[in-house]
Write a structure and sequence with these properties.
It is a single chain. This protein is mostly helical. The protein has a domain of 217 residues. It is built from 14 helices and 2 strands, in the order H-H-H-H-H-H-H-E-E-H-H-H-H-H-H-H. A two-stranded antiparallel ribbon has the order 1-2. A hairpin with a 3-residue loop joins strand 1 and strand 2. Helix 3 packs parallel to helix 8. The chain is globular and about 60 Å long. It starts with 8 loop residues before the first helix and ends with a helix. 46% of the residues are buried.
């Protein structure tokens, strides 16, 4: 007699979150079915789908930035700092580097990825050379990066015609070309990165070695993998993707660097939850990022149409991760 198929943990987690969210809505006097219907309509209706994809592009970029080191058992919590550095550099290069528009745009993207990548690699270097835990240093390094960006955009590089802490507008010929009313070419850049990360993870020797490190770092070292060099290179790639994500937002949507504008939407932490939901697996991470983007954009319609606060969507995300964490903990406790 064959056993029934095992329900994946992610499906159980999402189902648990949906049921728990429905209980919360009902307990507060709302209609759970109406709330969830408005989330679906607000995210997936033809008129609303471009907004969902627009939200999903940076969220996917930040999710992949977390997924790459997570695949090797490393955690990059410095996404906010790397995102901000990338956005700031992308705004400054077209303004202060005398290049033709298209070249200036490409130079801004490359410089953003390079600066953010080097800054992320600093956290790995600190762990390899000085024993500073990457989990802590990557998070703490975000604060000087955001502080520097805040100072530069608020004082020496501030647009004097505006009362806000922001740079002057980027020249039009250095901006990413639009794709319709909402998206821009930056969506293609994130798509290319997503494909490259999947191929790297599944088809390359380097990706195999990174997965091996995540499964058993001692065995990986015994097999001849230079874990220190691998950690620095992995964090450089992670930070580079975060910096490029910041560049696509600044060059394709905001057209200037504004203090706080990149971190307010919480792309970093939503991306972290998406990567955790998929365990760092790239395809699953992309799917989770799209799911969370749909939740967040649909939350606006839910709040507008049903008066249920959109914070419910953040609660649903948190419940999914908590369920998976609790299930993983129970499995480890039950293991002999």
């Amino acid at each position: 007699m064959s056993l029934p198929p095992r329900v994946p943990s992610v499906v159980l987690a999402v189902g648990f979150a949906v049921v728990a969210g429905a209980v919360l809505v009902a307990a507060s006097g709302g209609d759970p079915l109406a709330a969830y219907w408005q989330i679906a309509v607000g995210a997936l209706a033809p008129d609303n789908l471009p907004n969902t994809l627009n939200w999903a592009v940076p969220l996917t970029g930040m999710a992949l930035a977390v997924a790459i080191p997570l695949r090797g058992g490393m955690v990059n919590l410095g996404g906010d700092g790397q995102l901000v550095l990338g956005g700031l550099v992308a705004a400054l290069v077209p303004l202060y580097l005398p290049l033709p528009g298209v070249l200036s745009m490409f130079a801004a993207i490359l410089a953003a990825a390079l600066v953010a990548g080097l800054y992320a690699a600093l956290a790995a270097w600190g762990e390899v050379r000085h024993g500073v835990p990457m989990l802590i240093s990557s998070l703490l390094l975000s604060y000087p990066a955001m502080g520097l960006a805040s100072y530069l955009s608020g004082f020496p590089l501030r647009d004097r015609s505006s009362g806000l802490p922001q740079t002057v507008m980027i020249p039009p010929d250095a901006r990413l070309p639009p794709l319709g009313d909402v998206l821009n070419v930056g969506a293609f850049a994130i798509l290319v990165i997503a494909i490259a990360v999947v191929v790297f993870d599944r088809r390359s020797v380097v990706g195999y070695e990174l997965r091996l490190r995540g499964l058993n770092p001692r065995f990986a070292r015994y097999g001849g993998i230079a874990l220190g060099r691998q950690a620095v290179a992995t964090m450089f790639a992670s930070g580079g993707i975060a910096g490029l994500t910041g560049a696509t937002i600044v060059l394709g949507a905001q057209f200037r660097f504004t203090d706080g504008a990149l971190v307010t939407p919480n792309y970093t932490w939503s991306g972290l939850m998406a990567a955790l939901l998929a365990g760092g697996e790239p395809v699953g991470t992309i799917g989770a990022a799209l799911f969370f983007a749909a939740l967040q954009t649909g939350g606006f319609a839910m709040q507008r149409e049903t008066a249920v606060p959109r914070v419910l969507t953040m609660v649903l995300q948190a419940l999914v991760i908590l369920f998976l964490a609790a299930r993983h903990g129970l499995r480890r406790r039950a293991a002999p």
